[in-house]
Amino acid sequence: MSEQPIDAVRARIDAARSLFVLTGAGMSAESGIATFRDAITGLWSRFDPAQLASEEGFRADPATVWDWYAERRVAVRAAQPNAGHLALGAFERRRPGVLTLVSQNVDDLHQRAGNTGTIRLHGELLADRWLGPCARTPGCATQQARPGRPPRCADCGNLVRPAVVWFGEMLPPGAIEAAERAARGCDVALVVGTSGAVWPAAGLAAAARRAGAYVAIVNPHASEIDDEAHAVLRATAVQALPHLLRHD
Ligand code: APR
Questions:
Q1: Which of 37, 102, 112, 196 could lock 179 by a disulfide, CB 3.0 to 4.6 Å apart?
Q2: Is the CB of 193 under 6 A from ligand 1?
Q3: Average pLDDT of span 50-54
Q4: How far is 54 from 169, CA to CA, in rounded Å?
Q5: Would you say the CB of residue 195 lies under 6 angstroms from ligand 1?
Q6: Nearest-angstrom CA–CA distance, 186 and 211
């Protein structure tokens, strides 16, 4: 690991035939989206994270957990992609086929910035799914649920839940496999705004490095995977990404 000027990383990205980008909560911090843990404030501070982000917690008190996600959905809908998101969207349009974007974020800011095909390791806050398998064949659409906190299947009473990955749940099918394939196949891996504390996402930088990629980190603070990087840029996503991904 070494501290390197941003221009050295930028030159690597310019020359890359395949760029892998992994983003975490820090990517959306400058859009005003609180991290999951930071959002547990005010009225919510008496709740344990596991209560608000587990199937067990949801089954125990569906209305409270639904309200918590409803509040987070309002915050995400009100937020705007920042200059870092927009730089990634512009890069994908300018250099089609080069970027694989993998995000741990459940917001939709990469999608709104124009990135397509983003691998969303931890699901989607704004999407719904059934809590249990739908009892009918063919299955009912969650849009048909009777409104409520949470909405319910009018037929079998199944509850709607947000399509995020909760503690103890599997990642969306195929997501980590696709992310690992992209990490192993890239020339440059850029890791933005993640603490590197949550697995399996935390292993992707090391996978890229082992496969021969140049690895760079953008994070204003130390992260648990700094040692995996050839270059660590102590900057925010908004400070670094427009410059790193710029085209002259
Ligand atoms: N730009 C870049 N990085 C930033 C910025 C910023 N403006 N602000 C903060 N950071 C960094 C912090 O220094 C920290 O290392 O973003 C990181 C955020 O860390 P976490 O909150 O742990 O987020 P993340 O790594 O995405 O967590 C992984 O854990 O809570 C679960 O499912 C949730 O997807 C999340 C997962």
A1: 102
A2: yes
A3: 93
A4: 8
A5: yes
A6: 8
